[in-house]
Amino acid sequence: MASTKDIYLVIGGSGFVGRHIVEQLLRRGDNVSVFDIVQRYHDVPFYSGDISDQEQVSTALRRSGTTCIIHTASPPAGLNDPALYWKVNVDGTKAIIAAAVQNKVRKLVFTSSAGVVFNGNSLSNVDERLAPPERPMDAYNESKQKAEEAVITANGKDGLLTVALRPAGIFGPGDRQVMAGLYKVYEDGKTHFQIGDNNNLFDWTYVENVAHAHLLAADKLDTPPPAPPFSTLENIPLEAPPLTEAELEIITRPLPPLDLTVGRRCIPTSEARPLGPFVAPPPNAEQLVAAFQDKRTHPEGRPVVRTRFDPLSEPNIFRAKFDNPDSTPLQVAGQVFYITNGEPCYFWDMPRLVWNHLDTMFPGHRQKRGYTVLSASLGLALAFGAECWGWLIGKEPALTKFKVTYSCVDRWHNIEKARRVLGYEPQVSLADGVQRMVDWWRTEYTSGTHKTAH
Q1: Could you report how far apart the first and last alpha carbons of the chain are, in Å?
Q2: Which residues, 6+ apart, have CB-to-CB distance to 131 below 8 Å?
Q3: What CA–CA distance (Å, rounded) separates 24 from 17?
Q4: Contact at 8 Å (CB) between 413 and 168?
Q5: How many CB atoms lie within 10 A of CB 378?
Q6: Which chain regions cross the lipid bilayer (predicted)?
Q7: How far apart are CA 52 and CA 38, in angstroms?
Q8: Could you tell me the pTM of the whole model?
Q9: What separation in angstroms does the CA of 5 have from each of 20, 68, 168?
């Protein structure tokens, strides 16, 4: 018998990520409502309220009949208002959890941030085992960290199932931060400045990929774990027991390459290759070419080789189960997942791609000039001076120590857990995502939303 479809309430559904989630739910025919402080769209039922007020959230849950909450609401990063971050992200999330338990809502998907583990140092290929720092970089990430902790702690409380997603560097149509900031730099003629050597890799994530991951998490949140949690066993094993067939299927199946932007390449072999120059074709010429072409479209499964450092190796899976007997890293409920495009690029390459697209809109606006490269240490010194001056005049400086640090360190994340457990695969490439964002911005510009001197 088919399971009953969920009824969704997207908290923050008028915002950037929330709106894309609503649109994807509508496209697949789901019942969805929005809870927010402002109504920007009128295609779904809307409930206005303060998420830090449990009763207002509870009323929306009752009236909508919600069975799955997707909580995306948050003030934007970069505000100098710690109290607002705490009220919305921490108090608001706790109120949502309480309202969900009160109304026996089954599922809660929370939009966290990859920034909750950022401590100012380079993070390369980090996975979900990395604990958040005791002292987060800023008030935004501190509040997100506390909110995520509350969500994960609530998993299993009175039947509530929870999961937290950690997207990194979200951009796309509807974005009012990344695109607005990059355009401001372009308009001011400052695109030739670079802080750092641009050898640091950074994760950007297209917004529709983020929305897609939320739907996957919601759909799979109540999927039974692939093995009984240790807490359900008569005795917690002291040595790693054999993995179940369901667990082995998750960690050993071949994953396709992440090649949306770079395309797929195939290494010729003696059994599958282009023919190349020849006097007479080999007798099996057709088979050689056909096998090579088939590999380009259907890459053969290669064995998954793991080491003790791998997060999904058997010893590390056992360690995770032992540390938390009520859960397993191979289930969705009670887990956190990094969500990115899986295409880390050098930090300044993405802004320059956007600026190159803007050149087609405003030919001749940018004069050709070489890059003015400032070292990270000089950038930090300038930022320190700007922050001191800003403090004296009571104005937020354009250059801050956080921004300099952000642009000069590695920040990219391992998404294998999301790919294997959620079934997440990026749907839109980084290059196509930038094109779609600029196309959206172009529409906004031609309609008069953005005023420029061009």
Answers
A1: 61
A2: 117
A3: 11
A4: yes
A5: 13
A6: 371-393
A7: 15
A8: 0.91
A9: 20, 10, 30
Residue 54 has what DSSP assignment? H
- What span, in angstroms and rounded, lies between the C-alpha atoms of 331 and 226? 7
171 phi and psi angles, rounded to 5 deg: -150, 165
Cα 115 to its chain centre, rounded Å, is: 10
Residue 123: strand, helix, or coil = strand
Q: Other CB atoms closer than 10 Å to residue 155's CB: what's the count? A: 19
Instruction: Name 58's bridge partners.
Output: none
Which tokens sit at 374? Answer: 């400032």
For residues 125 and 414, the answer to whether their CB atoms sit within 8 Å is yes
Beta bridge partners of 338: 166
Neighbours of 184 (CB within 10 A): 11
Element (H, E) at 411: strand 411-413
Asked if residue 17 lies in contact with residue 170, where contact means CB atoms within 8 angstroms, the answer is yes
Of the residues 94, 144, 146, 417, only one is catalytic, namely 144
The full length of the chain comes to: 454
Distance CA 173, CA 417 (A): 27
Residue 429 dihedral angles phi and psi, to the nearest 5°: -75, 165
DSSP string covering 288-352: HHHHHHHHHHSPPP------TTSTTSHHHHHHHHHH-TT--TTSSTT-EEEE--S--EETTHHHH
144 is catalytic: yes
pLDDT 10s digit of each residue in the chain, 454 long? 346 899 999 999 999 999 999 999 999 999 999 999 999 999 999 999 999 999 999 999 999 999 999 999 999 988 889 999 999 999 999 999 999 999 999 999 999 999 999 988 999 999 999 999 988 888 999 999 999 999 999 999 999 999 999 999 999 999 988 999 999 999 999 999 999 999 999 999 999 999 999 999 999 999 999 999 998 888 888 888 899 999 999 999 888 888 888 877 777 888 888 888 888 888 899 998 888 887 666 655 667 889 989 999 999 999 999 998 988 999 999 999 999 999 999 999 999 999 999 999 999 888 888 899 988 888 888 877 876 766 666 666 777 787 888 889 999 999 999 999 999 999 999 999 999 999 999 999 888 776 554 4
3-state secondary structure of 161: strand
Q: In the numeric block, which tokens belong to residue 202?
A: 């950074």
Cα distance between residue 169 and residue 160, in whole Å: 29
Q: Where are the domains of the chain?
A: 7-223+332-446, 253-323
Q: Which CATH architecture has domain 7-223+332-446?
A: 3-Layer(aba) Sandwich (3.40)
